[in-house]
Design brief:
It is a single chain. The chain has 347 residues and is α+β, with helices and mostly antiparallel strands. The chain is built from 11 helices and 12 strands. The strands form 3 sheets. Strands 2-1-5-4-3 form a 5-stranded antiparallel β-sheet. Strands 7-9-10-12-11 form a 5-stranded mixed β-sheet. α5 runs antiparallel to α6 and α6 runs parallel beside α10. The two termini are 50 Å apart.
Length: 347
């Protein structure tokens, strides 16, 4: 945090290295200036489109000889890079009549902005299906419809209610993982091959479209089988959704040689619509969907959840794609060697 002190004539007597670094100023620039000169110098680094509270205003608001009054001002810097600082003014001892304390709250502000944007987006995503649910249910309550029309309205209500449930479940999963940092994960040595095959069975209508290739070597790893199952379903489900109706999705695994710790790489590749480069850079942002047409159902939370789950496992998620050609998702996970499996079972 930055510290700047002034003498009884309000000449600058000291600026610590942290302040100089935050403000992008040199010690020579700060030598021999008073509070007005300091304001003029500091203003060169600030966003002038925003109001700036001069130090003299802080001095006037501090009661003489009192340390209780500590006026604060929020300042946005553009140079040396964009930062948000909180400046607190204090009256100290006779040797240091005025002390300015600068705290960098940039990260805090960024988190607040992300939180606000996230809540606004979540509210919008929930409001859209809820509008359909309320509207169609009111129609059913107020009017009589033939059986075919009534069933069509009920199917719409059910579909939109399922969407709301999916959004809430995935939001809760994300919040639980972040809050507990994986403390509720049930890790055990598991066969990744079995988890992949179980995930495949959740898509019985598309089973013939999925080609699975597994190595002969053991794919035992210390996993939470339920969470990894969920992650694979999300990736495999996306691959099937964004492919042609008869398009084949390949699932393969290989053991990466020469890396520490040893890892297994699970690759899920489709030949679907692919992702534009500018969209690929945003993949994993909550509620972001590369396909914004609404033709393909989804919440925009799936890849975010996959990344959170794999991160808790100490793994990695790498996505490459070419628009119009398809997408490849590689999930890397630390693998358990055969002697480690024996030790774990024996223990």
């Amino acid at each position: 945090d930055g510290l700047v002190t002034f003498d009884d004539k309000f000449g600058l007597t000291y600026a610590n290295e942290a302040f100089l670094r935050l403000a992008g100023l040199t010690r020579n620039e700060c030598t021999g200036i008073d509070i007005d000169g300091f304001d003029q110098l500091f203003l060169k680094q600030c966003d002038l489109s925003l109001p700036y509270r001069p130090i003299a205003a802080d001095v006037d608001s501090i009661e003489a000889g009192s340390c209780d009054s500590q006026p604060t001002a929020e300042i946005v810097l553009l140079r040396p890079r964009r930062r948000v600082l909180v400046r607190t003014a204090r009256k100290e001892s006779a040797d240091t009549p005025l002390l300015l304390y600068f705290q960098d709250i940039t990260k805090r502000r960024e988190i607040e902005e992300i939180k606000s944007e996230f809540l606004a987006t979540a509210a919008h995503e929930l409001r859209t299906p809820m509008t359909s649910i309320l509207g169609y249910s009111e129609l059913l309550l107020e009017r009589e419809f033939d059986s075919e029309t009534g069933r069509d309205l009920l199917e719409t209500i059910h579909r939109q209610a399922t969407r709301v449930t999916d959004i809430l479940n995935e939001l809760l999963d994300l919040a639980r993982i972040e809050a507990r940092r994986g403390q509720d994960f049930n890790f055990a040595v598991q066969d990744l091959r079995a988890i992949v095959l179980a995930a495949h069975k959740t898509f019985p209508e598309s089973a013939s479209r999925v080609a699975i290739t597994m190595p002969k070597e053991s794919l035992s790893a210390r996993l939470d089988s339920g969470k990894i199952h969920q992650a694979i379903i999300n990736v495999l489900g996306n691959a099937l959704k964004f492919s042609e109706p008869n398009g084949v999705v390949t699932v393969s695994a290989r053991i990466l040689i020469g890396v520490t710790p040893p890892r297994v790489e699970l690759a899920i590749e489709d030949r679907g619509i692919g992702i534009l480069p500018e969209h690929l850079a945003r993949l994993g942002e909550r509620f972001f969907r590369a396909d914004s047409s609404g033709n393909v159902p989804g919440t925009g939370l799936g890849i975010s959840l996959v990344k959170e789950i794999i991160a808790v496992h100490g793994g990695s998620v790498d996505v490459t794609s070419k628009f119009g050609e398809g997408t490849l998702v590689k999930i890397g996970l630390p693998i358990t060697l055969d002697h480690e499996v024996s030790d774990s079972v024996g223990g």
